[in-house]
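Thread title: Can someone regenerate the structure for this chain?

I was given the following input by a collaborator and told the matching structure tokens would be attached. They weren't. Posting the sequence so someone can regenerate them.
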Amino acid sequence: MNADDDVSRFAYLAEGNARQARKRVAADVLIRDATGRILLVEPTYKDYWDLPGGMAEANESPTAAAVRELREELGFDAQIGALLLLDWDGPHGPWDDQLLFIFDGGTLADAQVAELRIVDPELARFEFLTPDDAARRLRPDMADRLRRATEAQQAGNTDYSERHR
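Best answer:
Regenerated them for you:
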């Protein structure tokens, strides 16, 4: 194969790549304090609280997105553990479909909790809540995801689901 064939093949593959579908990717993290309470954040742009995390940027892995989002939002360098949940969420309203990842962020020591701070105007505040209180502050679909992620964490596995709207 000569260099011209390589260039032609690369151009052909790049053209195909440009036409393929793109997915939105959200990466959230399940973090607890020493008493087992769950960290939630209150976004300024949503009606409900949420798990910390956010949307991946172009060509960014889900774990890298989770780490970046926690650093940008809470000034915290998260240690991302096992994948607890992966959901495909079908198109709805103005949104295309997305993949939603929830990773295990472990348990923070009291000193780590004390260092958390809001560093992004997208967040109004954060709080550690019992699982029941957390579920009440989340949108119903996120409360279900939190329950499933918690069960997956306890079982040592990953939960996968597809949500068609």
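The chain has one domain: 22-163.
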